[in-house]
Amino acid sequence: MIMAASWGAVDLDWRIIPLLIFGWYLLLKRWERDGVLDRWNATRVFGFILMVRTKRGLDLLEKVAKPRRFWRIYGEISLWVCTFAMFMVALVVVLAFVGALLSPPDVDPPSASELVAIPGINPVIPLWWGLIGFIVALVIHEFGHGLLARGHGMRIRSFGLLQLGPLPLGAFAEPEGEELFKAPRRERQRMFAAGPATNLFAAFVLLLLLGGIAGQFASGNQSIHVTGIVKGEGADEAGMLPWDTIETIGGEDIVGLEGFRDVLDQYEAGDSVLIGVLHEDGTRETVTATLSDKYTYYQNLGYSEDQLDTLSVNEGDPFLGVEGLSSNTAGIDRLAGPLSPNVEYSALQRVIIAPLHVVTIMIIPFEFQGVAMHPNEEAMLEADDSWLGNLIGKEGLLILVNLMFWMMWVNVLLGFTNLIPMVPFDGGHMFKDMVHAGLSRVRALGRKLKLWNFHPLWVDQISRKASNLSSLGLLFILLFILVIPYF
User: Would you say residue 24 has pLDDT above 90?
Assistant: First the structure.
């Protein structure tokens, strides 16, 4: 399936999946019988998943984990970050469930390929960038678990990979089971939190790097472009097209969005103006457009007088009929967000907005069908006259942009997915230990006040049941959200 996906996203025929899985199961059984799995230090789990172990990386882990005190502090910070993020993830899932109940979606159900987060199969995850991103994110995730395990004195037996045929399903750091079971719950929570937290911290570091790379780009044209044309309005009737660059209006050069607004404000509804445009194919043309009334246009869209007053839209204001006005560096600015040198934010605003931007970048591949930037936006960029721009040029910079973006995107995806409070995700293990810790404090308080004295096994039983019910409830919610579009 991966080989087929190298030519682009493909639509899976789910009827052949059981046959492929059964064939893989038979192959694993034969390898197990012939001793091949023993030679590979591998075992079968759940019957048809291959667990491959390796000692590689353990020496590096031991060296990096030497400052134990540092990693314990790191683990505590990770736990606080992941606790907050875990409850936010749970809240989003519950709100999505309530929204699906109250207002069932009327969109077409997702295709089979859209339901699996497999690079090249899912249409929004490109094959090679996706594979690189998943491999890096999985290594970061499991190394985070390993560092905290060693930071608290727990030994790591091996690292490993879970595979279904040629597809990597996940990775793992395998601690000594008895040491993990006997470890204090706080230390165990830190270890579970370290994996997703390291993914989220890595995503933030990648955003910083992406912001630095954004500063290596420039635009050869300081004009603005449009991504859409309103049908029946002046621009449409004049023959303007999406992705046209507006270079002049009435003979005046257009520099930036403010320049466009300042020049257009010199006219009124009903005026005819000459507009110099650069088409996507590189040809230039001067067209004549008749400006319509912006006030009337928005009224026809359903805006009230109060809303128009709030927007400072008055009768007679000129409207060209274009949408998505953007600077020619809009593509890289969208990726770098508050860290782009082309946006005007204070240092404090950049610090506050940056973590939120790391989350909002998740929608970009869905908007652009599996690419970080629209090809037309890439075409508008040029390498700046800087040491890095001169060294690798525009194409090299774009490779770095895609590398940083997809590694960041996959790290965010992996980090938040693992914080869903249901087993076997890290969030599920954290939630179980949190419930146990809370019940233990309630038990201790009751004993101190001589109000109640629950048996310790009662705490274990209730925390286990709470974890099971949480996992089953969230599984039902997630399946419901996925299935309801089919009805």
Answer: no
What's the rounded Cα separation, in Å, for the pair 362 and 273? 40
What is the CATH number that goes with domain 224-327?
Answer: 2.30.42.10
CB of 189 within 8 A of CB of 434?
Answer: yes
Q: pTM score, two decimals?
A: 0.80
Instruction: Name the β-bridge partners of 292.
Output: 319
User: pLDDT (tens digit, 9 = 90+) per residue, 184-227?
Assistant: 888 888 999 999 999 999 999 999 898 888 888 877 667 788 88
Residues in the chain, total: 487
Q: For residues 101 and 98, what is the distance between their CA atoms, to the nearest angstrom?
A: 5
- Sequence-distant (≥ 6) Cβ neighbours of residue 69 within 8 angstroms: none
Q: What is the identity of the amino acid at 90?
A: A
3-state secondary structure of 68: helix
With contact defined as beta carbons under 8 Å apart, do 142 and 170 qualify?
A: no
What is the C-alpha separation between 383 and 445, in angstroms, rounded? 65
**CA dist 165 → 118, 122, 162, 410, 450 (Å):** 13, 18, 10, 22, 58
Please compute Rg for the chain using Cα positions.
28
Q: Which two tokens stand for residue 412?
A: 């965010």
d(Cα 95, Cα 81) in Å, to the nearest integer? 21
Domain range list for the chain = 2-211+417-421, 224-327
Please enumerate in sequence order all residues whose Cβ is within 8 A of that of 164, keeping only pairs 6 or more positions apart, or say none: 21, 24, 48, 49, 50
- Report the percentage of the chain scoring pLDDT > 90: 18
CB atoms under 10 Å from CB of 386, counted, come to 13
Q: In which element (H, E) is residue 402 found? A: helix 387-417
Question: With bands split at pLDDT 50, 70 and 90, how would you rate the model's confidence at 404?
Answer: very high
Give the mean model confidence (pLDDT) for residues 455-477.
80
How many other CB atoms are there within 10 angstroms of residue 320's CB atom? 26
